[in-house]
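User: Could you check the structure of this?
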Amino acid sequence: MDAVFRALADPTRRSLLDELFANDGQTLGALEERFSMTRFGVMKHLKLLEEAGLVVTKRRGRQKLHYLNPVPIRLVHDRWVSKYAEPWVAGLSDLKERLERSMEKVYEIYIRTTPERLWEAITDSDIRAKYQFGNWQRSEWTPGSRYEMGNPNTPDILAEGENVEVDPPRRLVQTMVALWGEDVKQEGTSRVTWEIEPVGDSCRLTVTHDQLREEANSQLYGGWPMILSGLKTWLETGDVLTTPGSLMYS
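Assistant: Sure, the predicted structure tokens are below.
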């Protein structure tokens, strides 16, 4: 976590994160326009943020887009902030005017495990419940198969979708339709892509949640930092991490 604190110590780097928070998925050129420094200076700050895991990049044709990755900040929160101190607003709807442009959220985390064990944690219903708010997810896990997500403490199906690509233990692409409330039902279908890449004795897990309406209800994607923190904690320690999300159905 030292790299995270070093990255956050600089006001310019915090401002870069603020810019990505306000408008995720920006090019270097777009970010450069917002700062009174050279292109090289902005690149240097972005490199430090990438090394700390606070920014991830994805190629879109010839463009390199930068995304805010809140997972490392969530890990700091989970280590030192009492679960009773966080406001319950983390689970509430962000009610804004609905626009038609799509939005993409990218999350990245490193986990000390094998690709096979990580794949099992993603697709095994019992394991999934340990880090995704107690929710199970059941499927045959074959291309074109359906899946359903539910919770033992509610009779309703909370989400459903299709497994578009299933390539164990490297890549899983799913559509997602949220069903846990009338507000999220109106959002329609989005897409979640899990990508696993072995790195030494660890794995880099990248979760991309896209095909979201611009300013979509934050309930659809706001839980990912808690889910990924819980996944890392369970795989590396065997402990179940308590988060505001895990208390929703308790």
